[in-house]
Amino acid sequence: MFVVGLTGGIATGKSTVSALLRDKGVPIVDADIIARKVVEPGTTGLKQIVKHFGEEVLSPDGSLDRKKLGSVIFNDESKRKRLNAILHPAIRRMMVWEVVKHWFCGRKYCVLDVPLLIEGPIWKWVAQVAVVYCPEEVQLERLMQRDSSTREDASARLSSQLPISDKVKYADVVIDNSSTRENLEGQVTAFVQELEKAVGWTWMLSWLVPPHGILSAAWILTRRAISRKTKTKTN
After folding, report:
1. C-alpha distances in angstroms, 23 versus 166, 167, 208, 231?
2. Where are the membrane-spanning stretches (predicted)?
C-alpha cells in the first residue's frame, strides 16, 4: 500500500485538504481522532494518564478533561515528556492498525493526516510527504481571524511551532492554499490523479503477494533514509 503523510501548519488549511480528499474517497487516517480514541474511558491510555497525573484530570463523567491536563503539564517539560511517552506509542500503534485494515480491504493507498508528521518524525516511514502551505503572513492573518486573537497572541502560537517554510523542505508534494477555494480543490484533484498514477497496477501485486509488498516497503524506507540524510545535510 502507498502511504502518504499529510501535514501543514496551524491555519494553513490541512483539515480542509483532508476533508476534500475524504470526499473523493481517499482513505484518511486522522491522528487527531486517534489521539482522542486512545484516551477514551476504559482505555489503557487514560488509565496510565490517571496513574501518573491523578484523578483531578478527569471530568465528572470519567472522561479526560483536556484543559485540566493542560494546566498540569503547562510549563513542565518533564510532565509533558511523560504524557508524550504514554500517548505517542498508543497513537502510532492505532495508526498502523488503521493502515493495515485499509490494506486488508484492498485499498491502493491511504493518507495519514498528522499535524506533527515532521516533528514526530513519522515522515520517515511514509512513501510520500504532502505539505499544505500558505505564506506565513497569510497564516498569521487567518489565525487572527479564526480565533479572534491579537497579532501578538497569534504570532506567539506560530512561533511555538515548526515554521511552515521548514516543513516544506521535507515535502514531496506542496499544496498551496494561499489562493481561492476553487484553486485548492483543483490542486487536490490533481494530487489524487497523481496518486493513482504513482500506484499504478503494482498495488494489486503487493496485495496478492505480501512478500512483494514487504520488499516494496523496505525499498521505500531505504529511499527515505537516504533522503533524510540529504535533508539533514541541507538543513
Report:
1. 29, 25, 28, 33
2. 201-221
> Hey, what amino acid is at 36?
R
The structural domain count of the chain equals: 2
Residue 166's Cβ-count burial label (10 Å; 0-12, 13-18, 19+) is: middle
Within-domain flag for 49: yes
In percent, how much of the chain has pLDDT > 70?
Answer: 85
Say if strands 28-30 and 173-176 run parallel, antiparallel, or are unpaired.
Answer: unpaired
Peptide bond connecting 121 to the previous residue in cis, omega within 30 degrees of 0: yes
Q: Flag whether 121 is in a domain.
A: yes
Separation of alpha carbons 148 and 120, rounded Å: 29
Is 42 in the same domain as 100?
yes
pLDDT for 232 equals 47
pLDDT digit string, tens, across residues 155-206: 988 988 899 999 999 999 999 999 999 999 999 999 999 999 888 766 565 6
Cell readout for 146 is 479564526
| b/e sequence 55-64, b meaning 16+ C-beta within 10 Å | eebbeeeeeb
Q: Is the dihedral of CA 44, 96, 17, 229 positive or negative?
A: positive
Which range of residues forms the domain containing residue 172? Answer: 1-27+108-199
